[in-house]
């Protein structure tokens, strides 16, 4: 085998009898592609002189179908007689008669064009030498059993000339050159193509621009030998690979090489001839039948001249087993010729006219087993097939069907509207072995016909009588029936259930759209599935079946009662049954129940799903929007998930479910009492229950509890030994005794939120000593007057929030900055408090371990001056505060006291601050964020902080002076400040890492000055400004 790689190709050592014909098909394929792509043609008129072959008409096909059809055309040409094709093709061939591929001939013409401008002498020499060496190597390699693949390299030369007679005589002819135009022109019959030069240790055929060797003495291996890759691909392996391809891909594979062509033409791959919707001619199809007489399956659906094609198939393919036809007319001779196909097992005809449409069509065959006549037009049909087992006449337009099929098991006459009741009865009872009957949409079928069918066809298992309005089944007995479908049967009523109950083998029952059905009461031991959809008058459902595993009940607005007994049912969904009031279940394996939007369910439903209620394995229960529930109590040892979303009428909830892991109570607005004792919940959110007053929880695994917004909660018993987070915000009725009991029973609490809990006092805070791991405490908006209980009980506290604690005195924080209380404290929030300026200054001066401090809205805080000369500032070493003498390295080294750990300082909305001065002597080397926004009277800001990264001065309307020496500042916000652009330019000139500057709505900073600001600070990336121009 030889593989064409890029521009390299070789030929096989031998050739089959049809190689020339196949190469002709390959060449025609290439020429056709050249014609579409505008490539260079061969011959006088741009076309290769090839004998015209039968072609398809592509006009009626789309692009995809044209490509597929063209491939089949090439396949047909490939299997034509090799000798005849060889005579018709006047193309250059190799020594063994293989046609040189046109694609390579075309590329040779492009190479000839590149030879323009070269001297005729050099070109002639090159052409002669190369052609002789190339033919020797080519003849030598034809006998190689290994495929050679050469990698294309820039060092390889692939200019070779071959005459059209080289394949026969081994001689080469020089090219004719036009010296007047200084370019080489190939002779009329010469073929110029690109080919890599084969190298060996015995001869040298590579040449460079000067017709020299590869560079060297020729004793060592050439570069082409170094790049050579050898591959083995046996015929058996190739056969296995090609077995996974379809016909279109097999045609493509046949164009690779002779080995692939031979392998792809193996009859194993062509036992199924698929010409569905293809424009194949009778001659082409006859040739295919001649080539592959052992084909066992043929598909001619949608092919033109259907009758003639199928007659060829029947007469030529004696091993035919499956025949598929359609979209055409089949004459009477075809049905008579079927008897000659002794091995035919399956005949499929779809959307066809049988005969002339006005005569009786006989189908006689002794071995036919499957017959499909779907959507066919015929007046009368007679079928005599003693071995026929499956017959489908679905949607066929016929008035009479005579059957003589004693072994028929499956009969489908759905939508045969012209078949009368008597015709259906006659056809069905003539098949005593019938097991499956589909007569859906046969409106004339009556109970009398079904009775006779039941008496004659004792083995009937499957019956589909959907859309048969005259069927009631009241007097029909089908004891062996396993599947019964009665969609939209207006005659089915509650009286029909007695007849259905007689079918004790029934497994599948479908009663959708039976509008007169009111009650279904069935005791069927083998029933597995039942469907009741859109039964408008359906009221009561009573099912008893040990094997029932699927129930579909939907859109039955009148349904009131459901009683189900089953040992196999695992999932039950009864959605939007607004009038369902009673549900009785005895389902030992039931695990999931969904009763969403069953608004009429009452509290008795709780007993059904509790222990002893008939569902011992229930795991998931959904009762969303069941507004009829008021008092819910579940006691279940199997329940894992419970959803009561939107049950607004529930006032009491009692869950005794030791394995309950998830509960959803969103929308339970009127819940007043809740007991979770015990449960396996890990988290619980009761903040959406504003009327909750009594709570009892015992949850050994709970770690998070949220009671935010339970404003009337006055009694709470919480026993959660693993609880780490408790949010009791806005629980205004929560008292000290409740807090003390919770702290004693939940010793692992780390975060406690008591914001807006005015009833919590000192006794409750002293009980916090039971919480050794408490690190976060929020007492904002409380009436505390003394923090001593906190300082004594919460020694490990890291976060303390005291927002709007207006009753705290100035001395309340003295233990914090004088007595060393709360040594682990890192974050302190004193926003909107009443502390005076001196207390704030003492706090800032002594609590150097704080990392986050919030003083938002402190009206008593005045200038933030950490570089003054008052009594407190005298504790700091006096250094020259002149900005000209400021040196980060020298001044920070000169300070003997430890640096502050403060990282974030928030002073938002402090109306009395007028000046902020933070010099290096303030020891704020860790300060990274400073927020002074909404300080309306702030006029001057002078900050020198080495690590400050974010400074927010937005809405400081009075700001006029800004001095910054913050080399690591990245974001500066000056929105709505009255500062001028010169001050901004001077301030940011000392900020070498500034990236974001916001000067929107600054009346003295104009958009035209943005260039100046960027020049002052080259590191700026984002500048936000308003479109204001200078007046």
From TrEMBL:
Record-linked InterPro entries: F-box_dom, FBL15-like, Leu-rich_rpt_Cys-con_subtyp, LRR_dom_sf, LRR_FXL15/At3g58940/PEG3-like
Q: Which Pfam families match?
A: F-box, LRR_At5g56370
Instruction: List residues of the F-box domain.
Output: 227-273
What PROSITE patterns is this protein classified in?
A: FBOX
The source's domain of life comes to Eukaryota
- Compositionally biased residues, Gly residues: 210-219
Spell out the Gene3D superfamilies in the cross-references.
1.20.1280.50, Ribonuclease Inhibitor (3.80.10.10)
Region spans: Disordered: 205-226
SMART domains annotated for this entry? FBOX (SM00256), LRR_CC (SM00367)
The molecule here is called: F-box domain-containing protein
Organism of derivation? Linum tenue
């Amino acid at each position: 085998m030889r593989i064409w790689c890029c521009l390299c190709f070789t030929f096989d050592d031998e050739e089959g009898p049809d190689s020339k014909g196949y190469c002709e098909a390959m060449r025609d394929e290439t020429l056709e592609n050249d014609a579409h792509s505008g490539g260079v043609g061969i011959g006088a008129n741009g076309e290769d002189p090839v004998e015209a072959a039968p072609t398809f008409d592509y006009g009626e096909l789309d692009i995809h179908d044209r490509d597929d059809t063209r491939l089949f055309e090439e396949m047909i040409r490939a299997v034509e007689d090799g000798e005849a094709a060889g005579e018709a093709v006047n193309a250059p061939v190799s020594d063994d008669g293989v046609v040189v591929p046109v694609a390579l001939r075309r590329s040779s013409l492009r190479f000839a064009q590149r030879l323009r401008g070269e001297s005729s002498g050099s070109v002639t020499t090159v052409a002669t030498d190369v052609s002789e060496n190339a033919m020797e190597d080519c003849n030598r390699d034809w006998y190689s059993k290994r495929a050679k693949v050469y990698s294309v390299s820039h060092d390889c030369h692939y200019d070779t000339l071959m005459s059209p007679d080289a394949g026969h005589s081994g001689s080469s002819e020089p090219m004719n050159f036009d010296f007047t135009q200084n370019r080489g022109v190939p002779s009329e019959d010469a073929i110029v193509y690109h080919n890599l030069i084969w190298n060996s240790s015995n001869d040298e055929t590579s040449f460079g621009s000067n017709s020299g060797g590869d560079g060297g003495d020729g004793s060592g291996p050439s570069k082409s030998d170094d790049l050579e890759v050898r591959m083995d691909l046996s015929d058996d392996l190739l056969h296995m690979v090609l077995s996974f391809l379809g016909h279109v891909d097999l045609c493509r594979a046949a164009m690779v090489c002779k080995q692939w062509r031979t392998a792809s033409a193996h009859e194993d791959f062509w036992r199924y001839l698929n010409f569905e919707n293809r424009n194949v001619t009778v001659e082409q199809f006859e040739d295919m039948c001649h080539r592959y007489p052992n084909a066992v399956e043929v598909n001619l659906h949608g092919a033109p001249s259907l009758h003639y094609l199928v007659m060829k198939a029947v007469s030529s393919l004696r091993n035919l087993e499956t025949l598929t036809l359609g979209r055409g007319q089949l004459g009477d001779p075809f049905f008579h010729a079927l008897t000659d196909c002794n091995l035919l097992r399956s005949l499929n005809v779809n959307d066809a006219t049988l005969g002339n449409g006005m005569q009786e069509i006989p189908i006689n065959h002794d071995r036919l087993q499957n017959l499909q006549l779907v959507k066919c037009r015929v007046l009368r049909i007679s079928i005599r097939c003693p071995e026929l087992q499956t017959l489908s006449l679905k949607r066929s337009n016929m008035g009479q069907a005579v059957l003589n099929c004693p072994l028929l098991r499956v009969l489908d006459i759905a939508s045969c509207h012209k078949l009368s009741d008597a015709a259906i009865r006659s056809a069905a009872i003539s098949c005593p072995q019938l097991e499956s009957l589909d007569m859906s949409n046969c409106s004339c079928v009556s109970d009398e016909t079904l009775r006779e069918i039941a008496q004659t066809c004792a083995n009937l298992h499957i019956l589909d009588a959907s859309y048969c309005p005259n069927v009631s089944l009241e007097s029909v007995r089908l004891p062996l029936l396993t599947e019964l479908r009665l969609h939209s049967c207006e005659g089915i009523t509650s009286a029909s259930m007695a007849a259905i109950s007689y079918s004790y083998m029934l497994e599948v029952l479908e009663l959708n759209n039976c509008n007169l059905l009111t009650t279904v009461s069935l005791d069927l031991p083998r029933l597995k599935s039942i469907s009741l959809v859109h039964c408008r008058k359906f009221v009561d459902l009573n099912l008893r079946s040990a094997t029932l595993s699927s129930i579909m009940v939907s859109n039955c607005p009148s349904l009131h009662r459901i009683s189900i007994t089953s040992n196999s049912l695992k999932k039950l969904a009864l959605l939007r049954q607004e009038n369902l009031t009673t549900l009785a279940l005895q389902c030992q394996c039931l695990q999931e129940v969904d009763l969403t939007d069953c608004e009429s369910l009452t509290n008795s439903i709780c007993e059904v799903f509790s222990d002893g209620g008939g569902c011992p394995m229930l795991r998931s229960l959904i009762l969303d929007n069941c507004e009829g529930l008021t008092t819910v109590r579940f006691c279940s040892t199997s329940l894992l998930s419970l959803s009561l979303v939107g049950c607004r009428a529930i006032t009491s909830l009692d869950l005794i479910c030791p394995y309950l892991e998830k509960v959803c109570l969103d929308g339970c607005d009127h819940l007043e009492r809740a007991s979770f004792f015990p449960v396996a919940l890990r988290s619980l959110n009761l903040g959406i229950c504003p009327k909750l007053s009594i709570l009892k929880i015992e949850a050994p695994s709970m770690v998070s509890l949220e009671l935010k917004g339970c404003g009337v909660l006055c009694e709470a018993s919480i026993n959660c030994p693993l609880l780490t987070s408790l949010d009791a915000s806005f629980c205004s009725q929560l008292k000290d005794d409740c807090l003390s009991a919770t702290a004693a029973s939940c010793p692992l609490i780390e975060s406690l939120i008591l914001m807006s809990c005015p009833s919590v006092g000192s006794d409750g805070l002293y009980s916090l000593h039971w919480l050794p791991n408490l690190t976060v405490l929020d007492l904002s908006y409380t009436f505390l007057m003394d923090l001593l209980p906190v300082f004594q009980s919460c020694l490990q506290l890291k976060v303390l929030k005291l927002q709007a604690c207006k009753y705290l005195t100035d001395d309340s924080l003295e233990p914090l900055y004088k007595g060393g209380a709360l040594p682990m404290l890192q974050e302190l929030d004193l926003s909107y408090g009443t502390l005076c300026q001196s207390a704030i200054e003492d706090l800032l001066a002594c609590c150097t371990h704080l990392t986050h401090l919030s003083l938002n809205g402190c009206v008593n805080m005045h200038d933030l001056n950490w570089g003054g000369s008052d009594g407190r500032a005298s504790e700091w070493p006096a250094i020259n505060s002149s900005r000209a003498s400021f040196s980060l390295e020298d001044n920070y080294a000169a300070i003997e006291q430890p640096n502050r750990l403060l990282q974030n300082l928030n002073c938002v909305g402090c109306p009395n601050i007028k000046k902020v001065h933070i010099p290096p002597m303030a020891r704020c080397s860790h300060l990274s964020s400073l927020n002074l926004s909404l300080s309306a009277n702030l006029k001057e800001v002078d900050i020198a902080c080495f690590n400050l990264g974010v400074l927010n001065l937005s809405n400081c309307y009075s700001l006029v002076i800004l001095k910054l020496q913050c080399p690591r500042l990245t974001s500066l916000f000056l929105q709505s400040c009255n500062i001028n652009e010169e001050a901004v330019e001077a301030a940011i000139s000392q900020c070498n890492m500034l990236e974001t500057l916001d000067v929107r709505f600054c009346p003295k900073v104009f958009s035209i000055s943005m260039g100046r600001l960027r020049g002052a600070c080259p590191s700026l990336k984002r500048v936000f400004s308003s479109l204001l121009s200078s007046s």
